[in-house]
Amino acid sequence: MIDLSSAAAFDRALASMPSADPAAAGAARARQQQLTKPPGSLGRLEDLAIFLAGWQGRERPSMDTARAVIFAGNHGVAAQGVSAFPAEVTAQMVANFAAGGAAINALTGAIGMRLEVIALDLDRPTRDFTTGPAMDADECQAALMQGAATVTPDTDLLLLGEMGIANSTAAAALCLRSFGGTAAEWSGPGTGLDRHGVSHKSAVIARAIALHGDAPATPFETLRRVGGRELAAIAGAVVAARHAGVPVLLDGFICCSAIAPLAAVAPGIVDHCIAGHCSAEPGHARLLERLRLEPLLRLDMRLGEGSGAAVAAAVLRSALAAHNGMATFAEAGIAGGA
Amino acid sequence: MIDLSSAAAFDRALASMPSADPAAAGAARARQQQLTKPPGSLGRLEDLAIFLAGWQGRERPSMDTARAVIFAGNHGVAAQGVSAFPAEVTAQMVANFAAGGAAINALTGAIGMRLEVIALDLDRPTRDFTTGPAMDADECQAALMQGAATVTPDTDLLLLGEMGIANSTAAAALCLRSFGGTAAEWSGPGTGLDRHGVSHKSAVIARAIALHGDAPATPFETLRRVGGRELAAIAGAVVAARHAGVPVLLDGFICCSAIAPLAAVAPGIVDHCIAGHCSAEPGHARLLERLRLEPLLRLDMRLGEGSGAAVAAAVLRSALAAHNGMATFAEAGIAGGA
Hints:
Two copies of one chain form a homodimer.
Chain A: H1 7-15, H2 22-34, H3 44-56, E1 67-72, H4 89-99, H5 103-110, E2 114-119, H6 137-149, E3 158-163, H7 167-179, H8 183-186, H9 195-211, H10 219-226, H11 229-244, E4 248-250, H12 253-257, H13 260-265, E5 273-275, H14 282-291, H15 307-325, H16 329-332
Parallel strand pairs in A: 1-2, 1-3, 3-4, 4-5
Helix pairs in contact in A: 2-3, 3-15, 5-15, 6-10, 6-11, 7-9, 7-10
């Protein structure tokens, strides 16, 4: 397990990131050329299989031990009236996850993927970051490490998601501090704000960014000041997964925003990540562009809780079924192979 | 079973098409509003569930009896050198389907969907349509009815696909005769032609269209003159499915081209159809626009044999898992429901 026990260790982990296994990726690429289809004709399915082969270090990758991990947190900034839902819905939805009634339960269930939900101190919301840092250093550190601790090297794919009323406000603040632009560009309706609500949210975000303007622009400081526990946990999980050679499947705007501060200083952090989808939240397309990730699906989803990534996981399963299950031209005795 | 036993009966079937069940669609729409998520936040997944509810006539649609049916045919126009693969590959791939080694086997297997392959007189290719009609009326009629015969009312979703060396040339000719434009606009690399190959293919298509220019512009005549057996079978299956209330999941350019002649006179023919994906074959995006179908996936696939639709079927399964499996706000005891 990579050491993430201090802000300096976190920086070091970002500065020396391992690569995929080129031999395994090459073997998978060669296999795709031999399968009974015109070369390249499975398009992105071929790329996905080769990507997973590289990160899993074997010609025929699997999703047998794939896991969805959903982090939940509560946000002090909810007091600013930035969400269409009251803050107690975070805990109610965590109970719904436990009872098996949420979208992510149904979606992971449909593909037989394990689901774990990690609620991070829901009774202790972060502080309202329009008046000070959301977390102190110990709190942020603990959340990072709780995220990292969910990564085990025997996981063949890690799907990440989140739940947290008001966390699209934190997400927008993370993006704005990481990539610049205006608060309005990163603000959207989230779970369902109207035009006035979005405009108010945007003003709240602008205020927060002004307050923290003089703080050091490090990933840790950005996560600590305008992030949240579930966002720091996702960042920790993504870094730990990279060092454990575990490919990551990212969900929507909020999930992806957790790595914005990391990507701003270490753009290669996304190399082991797949963007499961592009959400309807307007900031997501902009963020994916900054992260240089091409989303797999565009289904106008905007729920979070890992739901878009879980639909994408069904597509990954199809990609691996073709890669691992198809006959080669030689096996099938077919002319060509172009 | 709707009567498709003559060209006139086919026209009648196109002139009086049943609609989806508005009560079932309405009940599904109401259910989506009550599930534990912000209304609309599952985006296209919600639309898909409501669509299937309407056509299956029940609030909670299923895919328990979903079937993939792949039609294969051989084409006289292959003699014009319009494909990167030799004509015998059609039969070899049908053998590969039977042996379970093709992409469609792996992709339907991954989601537990039944697969049937129907080879249509492979030893008797259609005639080269640059010198005369591809089929006589009896041959075209027989293919239409073989397609229609695959539809049973207990099928909850019918996935259609095709295999046939040179059939992207027939597909382009069907589109050109149905929707106009130029041969070049509808011609693409198919299984892997280079620039010169595409240009030659485009000239072959232009020649064919000129030859059949004076023929009546009816769906039957277009399918008969520049189509093929597997294409007429798909057209027959789509019409029969409509009259049996069976929703259809369409594959790529060639599969969709089979309904171009129908849509040119009866645009509502697509109302029970889902475009599974937009393929990399350039004519497909143009065709989907003409058909007014918004594709579910864009994965740069260009294999045919139902493969893109089979990946889309995995997404449909996710949509139904959420629709049927999630708790309502009342069941979960959650605040809001906005």
